[in-house]
Design goal:
The protein is of the alpha+beta class. The protein has 16 helices and 12 strands. The termini are far apart.
């Protein structure tokens, strides 16, 4: 039986060299497509945007265009990579069949796999990951040209895929995520990652995280509760009202008449002092109540981001918080919202009451009114604050009851012991963090 393949001695040297050359060129294209796809997907979109904004040339502009057309870019790179890999594999197989006969099929499979894996996949992708931004900037223009050339084929492929998914009952819009939520998650992830790596300090991480949290927090989450408010009785004599205003560290104080829920105004210490100066120091000549500004009532469900904008638009720093029935819940100031971003702001008149007292054994004594967010920031913890605002509220939520003194609970890796209770309120707790519990066991 005659051999159907061309004998090795009939393959001219020029044909062999040409085939090898074409194979090398195809593998170079394969490496280009693989490396470009990796570089474009790994490149920092924020940095590319900033480079284009700062006028760093056309390279960043091309990369940003590709990142904004990510599906087309990825599809084009996959199409180009698949095409050249198949073409180079077919060419290598043809050459080895000519040289070695049927045994060339096995040899072609092994050789093509090794060459493609090393030089067309691992090598270019590893380099692209290690130098994502610089590689993306260098390859931006040629990749954009390739995307433009391949777009008709890619669009047809996308249409076919959409038809198949539709037949399977999968809607394409179901694959699209909430871009705003994704953007916030990416920012949080990037901030936390850089913090873990030591590139971002804890204070900066908290500040950036605080900005992102504003859209998720309500006024009720950070307001000063009505039990902790300093109020002035509008029925007091002027001397007592003046003395109460000047004895407080706060600049603005709400005034009530009769019932404490009946807030009739907000006194500003500067207004009181100006009136006192105009009266020549005669307290009885000052009608303190007439100096009170009209109170600004806001619902407790207002988002912090909206309240911050409202403060800036009204040029006001103080608002009284009420529930849906109009009952007094607390108060909030512009400083309270800013503290959610930058951390606690203290001045020479602030009373340093933190409610957090670290103990020598590693445990922490915490007053029940301390907010979970403040405690997390102070101790670098990660206790959940979705179901409760204060640490006492968290314990009650987890226990599903109001615990008694000396009761101990363990959840979220922490141990909580009730130290003091007043009626139905948890006044103080001892919190044992995971690291303190491990040290105690050792």
């Amino acid at each position: 039986m005659e051999e159907s393949l061309i004998p090795a001695h009939e393959l001219s040297g020029s044909d062999l060299i040409f085939s090898i050359g074409v194979t090398l060129v195809l593998m170079m294209f394969s490496a280009f497509f693989a490396g470009a796809e990796t570089a474009m997907t790994a490149a920092s979109r924020a940095r590319m945007h900033q480079l284009e904004k700062e006028g760093e040339g056309e390279a960043a502009k091309h990369v940003n265009w590709l990142l904004s057309h990510r599906e087309q870019m990825v599809g084009s790179m996959l199409f180009g990579n698949t095409f050249v890999n198949i073409a180079s594999s077919a060419l290598v197989t043809s050459v080895l069949l000519t040289l070695f006969g049927n045994a060339g099929v096995a040899a072609a499979t092994v050789i093509t796999t090794v060459l493609v894996l090393i030089f067309c996949e691992v090598l270019p992708k590893t380099y692209a990951i290690a130098n994502a931004d610089s590689t993306a900037l260098r390859l931006g223009r040629p990749v954009r040209i390739a995307v433009t050339l391949f777009s008709p084929v890619v669009n047809v492929v996308a249409w076919i895929v959409a038809l198949i998914l539709g037949a399977m009952g999968v809607k394409s819009q179901g694959l699209v995520e909430d871009r705003e939520e994704v953007a916030h998650e990416e920012l949080r992830g990037a901030i936390d990652l850089h913090h873990i790596q030591g590139a971002v300090q804890t204070s900066d991480r908290n500040m950036l995280g605080g900005i992102l949290d504003l859209k998720d927090l309500q006024v009720a989450d950070i307001m000063i509760h009505r039990k902790n408010m300093v109020l002035i009785d509008g029925d007091l004599p002027p001397e007592e009202m003046l003395d109460r205003v000047l004895s407080q560290p706060h600049t603005r104080l709400p005034v009530y008449k009769g019932d404490q829920d009946n807030i009739v105004g907000v006194l500003h210490a500067k207004d009181v002092l100006r009136a006192l100066a105009r009266a020549g120091g005669n307290v009885k000549a000052v009608n303190v109540l007439s100096l009170a500004a009209k109170p600004w009532f806001i619902p407790d469900t207002t988002l912090l981001a909206d309240q911050l904008r409202a403060f800036l638009q009204r040029r006001s720093h103080f608002a009284v918080v009420v529930d849906e029935y109009g009952a007094l819940q607390g108060l909030i100031t512009l400083e309270d919202i800013l503290e959610e971003i930058v951390g606690e702001i203290r001045d020479e008149h602030d009373v340093p009451v933190s409610g957090v007292r670290p103990q020598a054994d590693g445990t922490i004594n915490v007053d029940g009114w301390v907010s979970i967010r403040e405690l997390n920031r102070a101790m670098n913890w990660n206790l959940p604050d979705e179901e409760a605002t204060t640490i006492a509220g968290l314990v009650i939520h987890e226990a599903q009851a109001i615990p008694d003194v000396a009761q101990i609970f363990a959840f979220h890796g922490f141990k909580f012991e009730v130290l003091r209770r007043q009626k139905n309120q948890i006044m103080a707790l001892r919190v044992t963090p995971p690291e303190a519990a491990v040290a105690a066991r050792e």
